[in-house]
Known about the structure:
Layout: E1 5-9, H1 14-29, E2 33-39, E3 55-58, H2 68-92, E4 96-99, H3 106-113, E5 121-126, H4 133-138, E6 144-147, E7 151-153, E8 161-163, H5 170-173, E9 187-192, H6 194-210, H7 214-217, E10 220-225, H8 231-240, E11 244-248, H9 254-260, E12 263-267, H10 270-279, E13 283-286, E14 296-298
Parallel strand pairs: 1-2, 1-4, 2-3, 4-5, 5-6, 6-8, 9-10, 9-12, 10-11, 12-13
Antiparallel strand pairs: 7-14
Amino acid sequence: MTSRTIVIAAGGTGGHFFPAEALAEALVARGHHIVLMTDARAGKRANGVFAHNPQYVLRGAGVAGRGPIRALRAGITLLGSAWKARAILRTIQPDAVVGFGGYPSIPPLLGARLLGRKHPALIIHEGNAVLGKANAVLSRFADVIATSFPTVAKLPMGARTVLTGMPVRPAIAALAGEPWSAPAQDISLLVWGGSLGARIFSQVVPAAIARLPAELRARINLTQQARADDVDAVRQAYADMGVKARVEPFLNDVPALLRAAHLVIGRAGGSSVAEITTAGRPCVLVPLPLPPLTSRQKTPAP
């Protein structure tokens, strides 16, 4: 088999980064070379598959939800990073560039497209059932869109799609088939909100736990992801009601937490859905509010 060089563009939240990590693991296992292009928010990885391979950190910025001046500045930043990515890509000559959504994926994919006719294969992965804002930009010139669901809303007309499913990290995949057992005494509760859902969970989950009978609260062993500026308040809320709780801005031991969980409360993002169902854990999933869907396009079977 011919060994190829694949650039993986990912950063930002775990929902974008973890599937990228899973793909990287699979590519390395098959003898391919991988290169990570990410943003300063994610930074260079000191652990995992990317730690042992070339990494490039590019400036990034989100555009959605900003005022016109800030959006313009963000756009200029992304364009500058795209030119920097173009220079890097001309040097390393990859066979493909794979983006996993979010604004960190824009500079590498756009930079690759700026190489002209001889650009590498351009692939984006859409993990959700609605095309994300960054992928909506990239889908206009991507060679193919890999999807996790058979139906994805807001795909551009004529887009070439392949149903691949969601890449899942090996440590999560290893949980498949492990039995779930009802709690004998302590109830292990995992609350993981993602970057867009953690704030509301920091408000509603402690309030819901407070309404439980004291004898039930005493049995709860809770782990919750919260935004950094909410961590202290959430910790204090659980301490005041006598609940054993670990509250962190980032959970780096999700496989172990999923294995132990009796119930998961989380965002209904594509990566979360895939990991929770792979582990086979009971869950309460909360979707983001979305505007009315204007179009749906079914993706063909692979």
